Amino acid sequence: ARVKMSCEEIPVYAVKFGENFCLYFEGLECDAFRKDKILQRVLRNVNSQLLVVRPDLNVAAFEDVTDQEIKPGNGMQFNIHYYNTTPPSAGRPVAFSVRVADKSYYLCCEKQCGKMMVQFREGEVPKDIPGESNAIFFKRTFTSCSSGAFKFEYSLEQGMFLAFEEEGCLRKLTLKKSREDEVDETMKI
C-alpha cells in the first residue's frame, strides 16, 4: 500500500543498512532559506493604490499613482525574492527589496517600543539565510476565490501579516494581527 505524505512531515533519507538488513533513516537538516528566483512587481492594496517607499521620510505607504509615474528607482517597483526551504512551509518564503535612486533597500520587521514595526533598511537581501530572519514573509493566497491576491505572514510571528492602516492622510504599511473569524481587506496585496 502507498502512503501519502503530508507537507507537515519531516523529509528523511536512508543512511545505511544495519544488522539483519534493517534500514536506518535520519531526518534531513533544515537547509534554511535558499534563494530561488526574483520577480519584479508593483504591490497594490484593495483600493488599487501602489506601495511607495520613501526612505528619506522613513515611510512606506500606499498612494494613488498613475502608470506613467512608475519608473525604475523610484521606490515603487519591488523585487520579490523567492526562497526554497526544507521542510516545506505553509506558504512560499519571500523577501522584498526596492531601489530608490541608486540605493537598494529591503523590507524587515523590528521591535520598537514593544511593538513590531515595518522598516526598510539599506542593503541587499541575502542569497542564503542560515536560519530565522526578520526579512522573510510567507506568501499565501488571500482567499480561495481571489487567486490573484495574496497576504504575507511575518515568519517570526505567526498570525502577523503585512497590511495597511490609516494614519492621517497616509495608508502606511504595517504589521497586523489576523483574526481567524474575519477576512481583513487591509491585508490583501
TrEMBL record:
Main localization, broad class: cytoplasm
Keyword match Cytoplasm: yes
GO MF annotations, alphabetized: cytokine activity
One GO CC term, this protein: cytoplasm
InterPro entries linked: IL-18, IL-1_fam, IL1/FGF
Signal sequence interval, chain numbering: none
Pfam families the record matches: IL1
Gene3D superfamilies for this protein: 2.80.10.50
GO BP: cellular response to lipopolysaccharide; cytokine-mediated signaling pathway; immune response; inflammatory response; positive regulation of cytokine production
Keyword list, A-Z: Cytokine, Cytoplasm, Secreted
Subcellular location: Cytoplasm; Secreted
Quaternary structure annotation from Swiss-Prot or TrEMBL: Forms a ternary complex with ligand-binding receptor subunit IL18R1 and signaling receptor subunit IL18RAP at the plasma membrane. Mature IL18 first binds to IL18R1 forming a low affinity binary complex, which then interacts with IL18RAP to form a high affinity ternary complex that signals inside the cell. Interacts with cargo receptor TMED10; the interaction mediates the translocation from the cytoplasm into the ERGIC (endoplasmic reticulum-Golgi intermediate compartment) and thereby secretion.
Family according to the record: Belongs to the IL-1 family.
Identification of the protein by name: Interleukin-18
